[in-house]
Specification:
Blueprint: H1 9-20, H2 25-30, H3 36-61, H4 69-77, H5 79-111, H6 121-140, H7 143-174, H8 208-215, H9 232-261, H10 273-283, H11 290-309, H12 311-321, H13 339-353, H14 355-358, H15 363-394, H16 407-428, H17 441-465, H18 469-473
Helix pairs in contact: 1-7, 1-9, 1-11, 3-9, 3-15, 3-16, 4-5, 4-15, 5-6, 5-11, 5-12, 5-13, 5-15, 5-17, 6-7, 6-11, 6-13, 7-9, 7-11, 15-16, 15-17
């Protein structure tokens, strides 16, 4: 790392926040009324905290090595499953990029005061292509440029708008206005109801939980940058815990602020965050801020993409160096950035973005694709938790600057809690949500299951076909 600027704890924290937090989830959680507290606490206790603790231990134990989750799982279960883990972390993002940049396109539409553009497929597709290729070229310029954009994208486009939402919500309550989430809805389970526990009639009615879990995913993604800290073993856990606190506060206070001001039956999931902003600002006669927040939240989305472009693909670079994939994937530019992997990734994202040009309505199709990404990512977390347990048992003397407290029993409890949350969410993810028009339920389940089988199977097939010469070629 000689000659390169070291990352600070705060910068890595903001990069992690950018990778995890998406303000577009606030209206979705707010629509659940007071029950959003249950969903966020469930996700925090059974997912965010265990993932943060386990990633902190594994990240500090292997801070001198690259690869992130690839290295962690490989050390526990061998290169085949290590490659599978990083592959799953990488491939689920390929589908996610067009959806989050579609949200950025809608924010920019509000920024130019033409909300109707958000429904225009050609406009949305062009914005996705422009933003993603820009993010790719910025990443190719090196980690210093990428971390700069990610850091300020998180600060200005995620944290700042989130604080504005929270401030407006507190101002609304302070003025003695009605608190929307305390007014029961007309039908139990319809969205707004003054109850902490959700109205559950079937697993389909809580399929929403899998989506909430996904909103908290990614706290481990920047472990690949641990070696860029001044004191990786000490500072990486610090950055993880700070990021977890910021993520929890933004989600909880932000969604409660929206739920307090905007009645659930007025919150549109399809319109996204900008409609919620427009409703909030209109209540305080601050409509002139809508374009400003449109630009900021779009910048935040781009920063979020930047946070992910370099992480999993860098882990995939480590697998190329180890001979898990063909050696041409190991090519790096003068900044040490994985050029071929990023270009292949950009081409795939461009093809997916092309769906906006040729399909009239892609929302349901992308929801099915998103459901696939949930299942793939959850399988990766299963491997990560299992690796942490096994390494604590088989390599107890491995130097760990941070250790999950309680010895082996403590690790079993923390990682086991995470496994319970992940496995439950995985099962729920196969049930079509009752509040979305997904069409044929059997087709929905079939597509999600097929996606999981294919994308989990692919790295195993690639591993079986790898050649001894690949490793030498990657050096």
């Amino acid at each position: 790392m000689t000659g390169k600027t070291k990352l600070s704890v705060f910068t890595l924290c903001m990069m992690t926040v950018a990778a995890v937090v998406s303000l577009r989830g606030l209206p979705m959680m707010a629509k659940e009324g007071l029950s959003l507290i249950f969903y966020i606490l469930f996700s925090t206790i059974l997912f965010l905290i265990p993932a943060s603790l386990v990633a902190a231990e594994l990240g500090s134990a292997f801070s001198s090595q690259g690869g992130g989750v690839y290295t962690w799982v490989k050390e526990a279960f061998g290169s085949r499953w290590g490659f599978t883990a990083i592959w799953l972390q990488w491939i689920q993002n390929v589908v996610w990029y067009p959806t989050v940049l579609g949200f950025a396109a809608s924010c920019l539409a509000y920024a130019v005061m033409k909300p109707a553009l958000a429904e225009n497929g050609v406009y949305t597709g062009l914005v996705i292509l422009a933003c993603y290729w820009m993010a790719t070229f910025l990443t190719l310029a090196g980690s210093n440029v990428a971390s700069f954009v990610t850091k300020y994208g998180a600060l200005c486009g995620t944290v700042l708008p989130g604080l504005i939402v929270i401030a407006l919500g507190l101002l609304w309550i302070d003025q003695g206005n009605p608190i929307a989430f305390l007014n029961p809805g007309p039908v139990a389970g319809s969205g707004a109801h003054a109850r902490l526990f959700p109205h559950i009639t079937s697993l389909g009615s809580i399929a929403f939980l899998a989506g909430i879990i996904l909103l908290f995913a990614g706290v481990e993604v920047h472990a690949v940058h641990a070696g860029e800290l001044e004191e990786p073993a000490k500072q990486f856990p610090e950055s993880m815990f700070l990021a977890a606190a910021v993520i929890f506060l933004l989600f909880m206070l932000g969604s409660l602020a929206v739920a307090a001001v905007v009645p659930a039956n007025e919150i549109s999931l399809t319109a996204g965050l900008m409609q919620a902003f427009e409703l909030l600002l209109s209540k305080f006669h601050l409509e002139f801020l809508t374009p400003v927040l449109g630009v900021l939240t779009a910048f935040g989305s781009i920063g979020g993409v930047m946070a992910w472009v370099g992480g999993p693909s860098r882990g995939l670079l480590e697998t190329a160096k180890q001979g898990e994939i063909p050696p041409f994937m190991a090519k790096v530019n003068k900044h040490g950035v994985q050029i071929n992997i990023l270009l292949i990734q950009a081409v795939i994202v461009s093809l997916l973005a092309g769906l906006y040009f040729v399909m009239d309505n892609v929302s349901v199709a992308f929801f099915v694709l998103s459901a696939m990404t949930v299942t793939l990512y959850l399988v990766m977390y299963i491997l990560m938790y299992a690796a942490a347990i096994k390494l604590r048992r088989t390599r107890p003397d491995l130097p760990r600057a941070y250790k999950v407290p309680g010895g082996l029993g403590g690790m079993w409890f923390v990682a086991g809690t995470g496994l319970v949350g992940v496995c439950f969410s995985l099962v729920v993810g196969f049930f079509p949500p009752t509040n979305l028009p997904v069409g044929n339920p059997a087709l929905y389940v079939g597509l999600v299951a097929a996606g999981m089988v294919v994308f989990v199977g692919l790295p195993l097939v690639i591993n079986a076909c790898k050649k001894p010469g690949w490793r030498q070629g990657g050096k």
